[in-house]
Design a protein that fits this description.
Layout lengths: L28 H4 L29 H43 L12 H4 L2 E5 L2 H7 L5 H4 L3 E8 L4 E7 L5 E8 L1
Amino acid sequence: MRRFLSIAKGSHETVPNTAQQVGGDEPPPRFSVPCVASIRTALVRSTVPVGGGRSPLSFGNKTMKAYGPKLVAIIAAIFALALLGLTIVLQMELRASNILLSKSALLRPGMNLCTVTNQLGPVMYERTNADDVLNFGSVKDENFCRGKKLFWFYVSTPPCRVLEVYTDTNNIVVFVTWQGL
């Protein structure tokens, strides 16, 4: 580093071109500035174990690469089974709804129930008491249930669906609905 001679501190005299380099073998200033050593950075692992000391799963490590194809196959199989199950349930619902609609289309208010009983399927319940009609049926109006009969006809299972037919005492159809059990 260059060092220059300067005038003593109390002196106001200026000396032109009196500065001299001390130590002649010193390199020029641009080369003599001490270099800032480059700071090396390194990734530091946390001292707190993640996941209770177990390594977290990652898809990049070697152990996951070995299980990757098997894991994908298992997930794909589970997804396919779930999709198949959903398809089966929806098909059964559709089938039950179609049977229910076709059987309820046979019944019209004012017709005699005996004419279509053999087309509706087996009778599950026949209730003639007003309290039983009120308790078992989906209609909860006491005035409506008085003097009525309730018939449950089995329609489909699974899902279990019954056709509720309300008739008067002469088996003339008054009201038709369905119920899922």
